[in-house]
Write a structure and sequence with these properties.
Order of helices and strands: HHEEEEHEHEHEHEHEHEH
Radius of gyration: 19 Å
Number of helices: 9
Strand content: 5-15%
Oligomer: single chain
Mean pLDDT: 79
CATH topology: TIM Barrel
Largest sheet: 8 strands, parallel
Number of strands: 10
Structural class: alpha/beta
CATH architecture: Alpha-Beta Barrel
Helix content: 10-25%
Strand order of the largest sheet: 3-10-9-8-7-6-5-4
Distance between the termini: 22 Å
Number of domains: 1
CATH class: Alpha Beta
């Protein structure tokens, strides 16, 4: 949900916020968003909070995990797309499209492939495995231990309160599990409610008490798509092993501006993140009620994969957002054409 542009609804939101600022100050805005607009991935808790298993998911506020039969693993909370959270940041502007810098048909080369949301069927079967995804979205140890052979788990924590007792209990339960790849600590955090120091405290605790586990978060672009900004969260400030970047160029606003992909990576590098620690997040959703993102065509998907390959040729893993549906959108699970591309790639 991670994965924020100049939209008609954003302009409306700014007008409403300006006209009703007094009312807004007296009401409760959604966590992680000064404007109350939900995040593209997961709503963030304020200082001392924990958005783990107890918070409903959005991209991010998340919906509550869907109940499954007793033998089925519990799904991880849903991560959702979020527009830019604060109207004080420069509004996103679109540039004219440019040709892809890399030939179609290429993609980043990695042995681990992740896709978020609704990974498990009613009987507990791991559904994305049929398309070669081997890094599962899980939210509890039962789901992790039930994964089929050859599949590892990226455990969703959704926490931003530091290494609290609740956090230590939640993350510590996975220590020594051979199916654990790492922890998805937070998604598109807002520095006003999720300071870098809180992430650093969580990261340090995990590295000290769950040896070998990777720490991961998607970073939110706090500026425009033409001039992205990731400086609020740096490698030293957060300690994160890996970060995801989620430009989603396919919208109803006009032809895709694929240059956003290279622009996001360059901005992350400027903030201190080496390419080796950047995870590409591919757009595989559209037709959402949250914004004007459109489901990519197969040709558009191939161009995006090629452009990602040009700037992140060999990531630790890659991330297709999203397998499951959110806000009525179409995700990868409902697109056989896109599934065929990823089955061939993975």
């Amino acid at each position: 949900m991670t994965s924020t542009r100049s939209r008609a609804w954003q302009v409306t939101a700014v007008v409403i916020l300006t006209a009703g600022s007094a009312a807004a100050c007296s009401s409760h805005a959604a966590p992680g968003s000064a404007s109350g607009i939900p995040h593209r991935h997961q709503q963030q808790c304020g200082s001392g909070g924990n958005c783990g298993s107890s918070e409903p998911g959005t991209r991010h506020s998340s919906s509550a995990p869907t109940p499954t039969p007793t033998r089925s693993p519990s799904p991880a909370p849903t991560r959702r797309r979020t527009p830019t959270p604060a109207p004080t940041h420069p509004r996103r502007t679109r540039r004219s499209p440019a040709p892809s810098p890399a030939p179609a048909g290429q993609w980043p080369v990695t042995s681990l492939h992740y896709t978020a949301n609704d990974n498990f069927g009613p009987s507990g079967a791991y559904l994305p495995g049929a398309d070669g995804f081997n890094l599962a979205d899980v939210g509890d140890k039962g789901a992790l231990d039930a994964l089929p052979a050859g599949v590892l788990g990226l455990v969703w924590l959704g926490a931003c309160g530091g290494a609290t007792a609740a956090f230590r209990a939640q993350a510590g339960a996975f220590a020594g599990d051979r199916k654990l790849f790492g922890f998805y600590i937070t998604d598109e955090p807002d520095p006003s409610s999720c300071p870098a120091g809180a992430i650093r405290a969580e990261d340090d605790w995990i590295h000290a008490h769950v040896p070998g586990a990777k720490t991961f978060a998607i970073l939110q672009n706090l500026a425009s798509d033409s001039s992205p900004d990731f400086t609020a969260y740096t490698p030293h400030g957060t300690g994160l092993d890996l970060i995801g970047l989620d430009p989603y160029p396919v919208t109803s606003a006009g032809p895709p501006d694929y240059r956003e992909i290279a622009g996001y990576v360059a901005a992350a590098q400027a903030a201190g993140w080496p390419v080796s620690r950047i995870v590409p997040v591919y757009q595989v959703f559209g037709h959402s009620s949250e914004g004007d993102w459109m489901l990519p065509t197969t040709d558009q998907e191939r161009v995006m994969l090629a452009d990602w390959a040009a700037v992140t040729p060999a990531p630790a893993f890659d991330y297709a957002y999203s397998w499951g549906s959110q806000s009525g959108d179409t995700g990868l699970a409902r697109s056989p054409a896109l599934q065929a591309i990823f089955a061939a790639k993975n």
